[in-house]
Amino acid sequence: MPFDFKKEYKEFYMPPQKPTIVTVPPMNYIAVRGQGDPNTEGGEYKQSIELLYGIAYTVKMSKKGSRQIVGYFDYVVPPLEGFWWQEGVEGIDYSRKSDLKWISVIRLPDFVAKADFGWAVSEAAKKKQTDFSKVEFFTYDEGLCVQCMHLGSYDDEPATVELMHRFAEQEGYTLDITDTRLHHEIYLSDARRVAPEKLKTVIRHPIKRQGGQGA
Predict the structure, then answer these.
(1) Which of 33, 79, 138, 158 sits a CA distance of 20 to 30 A from 107?
(2) What residues are paired with 144 via a beta bridge?
(3) pTM of the complete model
């Protein structure tokens, strides 16, 4: 059975529908940065997703190619994720999607070194005849966060976010969104195939102890 990050790390990918506190360790990702409304057909965000999956599947299928990555094990490609922000806004203003900036990511297994990633970018560019220059190897240490499973439309996320913030405050934490600690979403549903009211999205916000740092 291929290793499934969602099943093996349920605390990060399958939280309950009520807010919880979690400490997320550093992880490596395939990443593409951009800005603008993610719903724009043929726009920068949707192009970024194609680039991410191009690299993700090149790494996954490397076992059948010329490069044998040290420590490789078979796995399910992890879900699409995104870090989001807007200039001058703490959190997200969902009414101003054209102002969104984002880092769209897919997690990499720990066995993928930077050299392996570079090979995957070159291999994908050669096979797909596509420019993958926007893709980067991205390490993110998320740390202490409040998170919750959101069921429903992305536009309905503010209600879940409000619950998260209230819970964190009750538990003695305060929101810690900064230039480097960002609003984070993990997409467990394919929005092209799932009705909006059935979408599953993990929402995660950075926090710190009230009056101090860390846990």
Answers:
(1) 158
(2) 23
(3) 0.95
